[in-house]
Amino acid sequence: MSDLGKRIQELRKQIGLTQAQLAAKIEISHTQLTRYESKNIQPPADVLQRLANIFDVSIDYLVNGNKSDKVEQTLKDAELIKQFKQLDKMPEDEKKSILKVLNALIRDFNARQAYVL
Questions:
Q1: How many other C-beta atoms are found inside a 10 Å radius of the C-beta of residue 93?
Q2: What is the pLDDT of residues 10-39, one digit of tens each?
Q3: CATH number of 3-116
C-alpha cells in the first residue's frame, strides 16, 4: 500500500465511510477506490481534488503527506464527529446525561476564557 493509499484509507475511516460510500461520493467505482487504497496507483487530478474536498484537506497532503494546521484540525474534528455518531446508538436518557456533562464543560471553559481575557 502506498502512502497515498494509506492516507486515503485513514481519512475515509476517520469520517466513518465505507469504501463503497466514498466511491459513490466521488463518483468512481468501488473497485477503483480499492485500487487507490491498496495498490500503488495514483488517482487522476480530478479524483484527487474530489477526495481532498470530501476530506477537507489539500491535494498536497493527500499526495505528499505535508500537513497544515487545517489538516490537523480536520483530523481532530473527524475524531470528534466519530464520537458523536456513537451517541445515536445510546438510549435517550444516556444522551441527555452526556449532553449535560458536555454543556457544563463548555460553560466552564467559556467562563475560564472570559476570566483570562
A1: 8
A2: 999 999 999 999 999 999 999 999 999 998
A3: 1.10.260.40
User: What is the model's pLDDT at position 49?
Assistant: 93
Contact 15, 81 (CB under 8 A): yes
Whether 81 and 13 have beta carbons less than 8 Å apart is answered as no
Write out pLDDT tens, residues 37-90: 998 789 999 999 999 999 988 888 888 887 665 656 666 677 777 787 888 889
Query: Of all helices (H) and strands (E), which one includes residue 90?
Result: none
3-state helix, strand, coil in the chain (%, to 5): 75, 0, 25
CA distance 42 to 20: 18
Q: What is the DSSP string of 26-61?
A: TTS-HHHHHHHHHSS-PPPHHHHHHHHHHHT--HHH
